[in-house]
Write a structure and sequence with these properties.
The complex is a heterodimer of chains A (233) and B (118). A seven-stranded parallel beta sheet of chain A has the order 3-2-4-1-5-6-7, with helices on both faces. Chain A has a single domain, classed as 3-Layer(aba) Sandwich (Rossmann fold), CATH 3.40.50. Chain A is an alpha/beta fold and 233 residues long. Chain A contains eight helices and seven strands, in the order E-H-E-H-E-H-E-H-E-H-E-H-E-H-H. In chain A, helix 5 packs parallel to helix 6. The radius of gyration of chain A is 17 Å and the shape is globular. Chain A starts with a strand and ends in a 5-residue tail after the last helix. The mean pLDDT of chain B is 76. Chain B has a domain of 34 residues. Chain B has 118 residues and is an all-alpha fold. Chain B contains four helices and no strands. Classes of the chains: A alpha/beta (233), B mainly alpha (118). Chains A and B meet through helix 1, helix 2, strand 3, helix 3 and helix 5 of A and helix 1 and helix 2 of B. Chain A: Keywords: Coiled coil.
């Protein structure tokens, strides 16, 4: 069965595209067939893909498509989704109604956040959108908040400490245990050098790889739980 | 992420890069959508289309609602002209009560509005 994962946060620069690229690379490395869909008008994902093509660094097992409309997405999902093990959807970093059809198609929505108030609020909005679409369509799409671009200094901030109680206790959605650190390699990848998993393994890359493996393991677990509980959210 | 104990680089496989086949130039996927658009929709889609239209207007309605909710929490300002004496009293009160003039004015305005049933 095709697993559909979307990255949604109404605030730009939270790390949606990066998170999806890393997850896609991991699934592709395992031999999966992964489709990535760019629904962001800024085309970050598609630019990365064409840059990769120019540098002859497109990864094996990943295809990238660009759809800017709900209809385009729906039609693509109907015609092509079955051919893939995983479909990862990148969305615009702004409040838009286009996220509704994305949530309707998704099994899991990941909202990446940096420890900043606006991004936490953006993630909460995304969660509420997921709840709304779930209720309207009788779906059980899961939602998780992923802390990204973490640095040593940011971990000492008050907001960082508050994220867990806010997300888990107040908002009551899932908070990924894995944190994605701010790493140079994640920036480098955007220049079109393929996926993280294609890079020669150095100490720095190994840390990023371990982080990504932990994240994907958590994603798998979240989706497996969903299957086990009969899609009861 | 408790990775310190076993950071051996050999455990990570490197992903292969795609072999570029010279014959088939990969078409730019950006075009996909526009290529398929011109197909005329079958007649039966009209009810489906209205349902879809309703769903998308529902989505934008929810978005507007969200923005309105967000506005509720934000501050809205009023500029008040006071004579020197009133200002002095207000300042003194805020100093003595160890609170801000803003808090006092807010309370006073609320009290007035509540008392007069606005």
């Amino acid at each position: 069965m095709t697993v559909v994962i979307a990255a949604i946060n109404g605030k730009g620069g939270a790390g949606k595209t990066t998170a999806l690229m890393n997850i896609a690379g991991e699934y592709a490395l395992r031999g999966g067939h992964v489709a990535m869909i760019d629904m962001d008008a800024r085309n970050n994902l598609m630019k990365w893909w064409t840059d990769c093509q120019e540098k002859d660094a497109q990864p094996e097992g990943i295809e990238v498509y660009s759809h800017k409309t709900a209809r385009g997405l729906e039609r693509w999902m109907m015609d092509n989704a079955n051919a893939f093990d995983h479909v990862l959807i990148d969305t615009p970093g702004e409040d838009t109604s286009i996220v509704d059809p994305v949530i309707a198609a998704a099994d899991l929505v990941i909202s990446p956040i940096q420890p900043s108030k606006r991004e936490v609020l953006g993630a909460i909005d995304s969660f509420e959108n997921v709840l709304r679409v779930n209720e309207a369509l009788g779906k059980a799409c899961r939602h998780g908040v992923l802390r990204t671009r973490i640095t040593v200094t940011v971990r000492h901030t008050e907001l960082y400490r508050k994220i867990r109680p806010i997300i888990e206790d107040t908002v009551k959605t899932y908070l990924f245990r894995t944190e994605v650190f701010e790493r140079n390699v994640y920036k480098d990848i955007h220049n079109g050098i393929g996926t993280l998993q294609m890079q020669e393994v150095t100490d720095a890359i190994a840390k990023a790889r371990r982080e990504t493996q932990a994240l994907v393991a958590e994603v798998d677990q979240l989706l497996a739980n969903e299957a086990a509980t009969g899609r009861a959210a | 992420m408790s990775g310190k104990e076993s950071l051996s680089l050999a455990e990570f496989a490197t992903a292969p890069r795609r072999q570029r086949s010279p014959a088939t130039s990969v078409p730019n996927r950006v075009g996909d959508e526009s290529l398929t658009t011109p197909q005329s929709p079958p007649e039966a889609t009209t009810t489906e289309a209205t349902a879809k239209g309703a769903a998308s207007s529902e989505a934008s309605k929810a978005l507007r609602q969200l923005k309105r909710e967000r506005m509720k929490g934000t501050s809205h300002f009023v500029n008040v002209n006071l004579d020197r004496e009133t200002k002095r009293r207000l300042k003194l009160a805020s100093f003595n009560l160890d609170t801000s003039m803003q808090a006092l004015m807010e309370k006073a305005i609320r009290q007035y509005l509540d008392a007069n049933g606005f």
